[in-house]
Structures are given as C-alpha cells and as structure tokens.
Amino acid sequence: MNKKLVIYLVCEPETPELAAAAVEGGADVVELGIPFSDPLAEGPTIRLASERALARGMRTKQCLDCIAAVRERVDVPLVPMTYAAILEAYGYERFVADSRAAGATSAIVVDLPVEEHADVPRIQLVAPTSTDERIAACAASTDGWLYLVSLTGTTGARNDVSPALAGLVERTRALTDAPLYAGFGISTPAHAAAVAELADGVVVGSRAVQVAEEGPAALRDYVASLRAAI
User: What would the mean pLDDT of 40-59 be, rounded to a whole number?
Assistant: First the structure.
C-alpha cells in the first residue's frame, strides 16, 4: 500500500510557495498550522514559528487567505491545524464554512475533545495514554484518518522513533479500519521508514518547519528524501 506523507507548515506569507515545493517533493497532504499564542502541544521549533507568524500579523483571517493561496497552487488535501480557542473566538460553524471555502479538506483541533462540537469535522488524535474506549470513540468520529501521537509530550525532532508507537498502532488497528498516520518526533528518512512500516502514513512537522526556513528548494529536497525512504 502506498504510504502517505504529511508535511506540516505554519501559515506565513511564504507558505504557499513552500507548500508547492513540499508537494513537488512528494507530500500527499499538507497540514497548515494556524498559530496560537499558547500552543500546548508544540515544542520550541513550532512555537517559535507560531510566534513569528503572529508577530507578522497572521491571524485566523490571514491564515484562511493563506490556505486559499496554497489551494491555488496544489491539489492535495489541506488540513488546517489549530486549537479550540481559535475556533471559539472565530466561531466554530463559521470556521468550518470559511476554511472549506478556502480549500481546506478537514481540520485538526489539537485540544478539542471528541465529545465536543461534533459539528466540526476533524481528524482525531490518539496517544499512547489513550484508553481503548477513547481510541474507539475517536476512530468512530474521525474525518478520514486517525492521527497517532507517537509519544507523550510536545512536538519536536527526536533521535529515535518512540518505542510506544508499535503498541499504539496494534491497539488502534484492533479497534478500527481507519487509516493510521503517525506523527510527533519524526525528523529523518530513517525515522520515516521505521514509522511507515507500522502506520499507513507519516506526519513530519518540526523538522519540516526548520528546513522550510532555508527556502522552497531545500524543503523540496528534504521531502523527497522522506518520500524515497517510505
């Protein structure tokens, strides 16, 4: 089966060009981070990128414009990733309508529990700490695929793939047929290859954000190296 490669970028003025480069390199899905002032799940790389984006005026409206500009350049699924406070401020239904109009395919709302706001179609996250009951509930309401958070803690490039991932994949597979994409801590082609042996897709965030600072060509080459590995 063709393993999916998901690349995360923060919404900034350069992002449309970077997203196009990521897709040229072999990204199947682009996650677009809508920056939040208190990003609980994020490690230093994405936190800094979010702070920079906010300092440059990237509010929800500007991020939706950014998503629309990305959509003009690529035809892969686009998934905005954000926090409940952003949707609370913008309006849940309004966010769904406006993000879809901009070309978004779904959404990830990191801290919105599965029981709340069923009116927001979104990709659910499960972690090694999730109970089987929780995993089943998330799988039942997820929009397309399930995001497996491969470790407990924040995002960020790590030296090794989390040893907890294999067990989480096994438990989740027993509960659902939904595709399972794993992320958090994946930064090298070797990591990506190891994760692709376990899961249906690989999500790369922090390292992609770091490489993106070197420009579109560097990002395209980096994504191509991940694509070749999986």
Answer: 90
